[in-house]
Amino acid sequence: DAGVTQSPTHLIKTRGQHVTLRCSPISGHKSVSWYQQVLGQGPQFIFQYYEKEERGRGNFPDRFSARQFPNYSSELNVNALLLGDSALYLCASSIDLNTEAFFGQGTRLTVV
Amino acid sequence: GQQVMQIPQYQHVQEGEDFTTYCNSSTTLSNIQWYKQRPGGHPVFLIQLVKSGEVKKQKRLTFQFGEAKKNSSLHITATQTTDVGTYFCAGVVTNDYKLSFGAGTTVTVRA
After folding, report:
1. N or C: more exposed end of chain A, with fewer CB within 10 A?
2. Which residues on chain A are in Cβ contact (under 8 Å) with B45?
3. Tens of pLDDT along A100-110?
4. Structurally, how many domains does chain B consist of?
């Protein structure tokens, strides 16, 4: 059974551009969460979706948005990229809210 | 907002020795989870603690949740080179489902 898959694995963007990151959860998992991890720090919560509804939002600007599709896959969009958006973006899926999270390998975003 | 603090930030351990990493929350938690991240990898779930005073063991790892549900610890006995990595605690506040991660304890092992 496949784990959480994220695409792309690496991405280089220029300041001001926008980016779309994709995540496919483990089959049967209804919750998807997004995290930003800067080198040397713990993952910072961005969004959580459950049954296609936003259930939580972290302290990130409105440039960050996300959605969950009927098949439970998810997209994270970031507009007007800044150098400080360079990080590892992690997607995690769980069967339900408040249960263990299974993380994907992440998307390494570099903004130049 | 809720903050989860972890100490120490770094732990250099002689192979075979024991060590403990600690996690403290500014607010009461509904549950706390522990994850391990190897260099270049992604966080991998280790355990979830829900009950006040709960203690769980996984081979050489012992996890504890404080009575007030605001702190937790991870104790590793007889450290091995396979224990290398960063250990994160992540707390969940009641009715707020997001995981708030600590900064992690990065463990290196001297053979």
Report:
1. N
2. 100-102
3. 999 999 999 99
4. 1
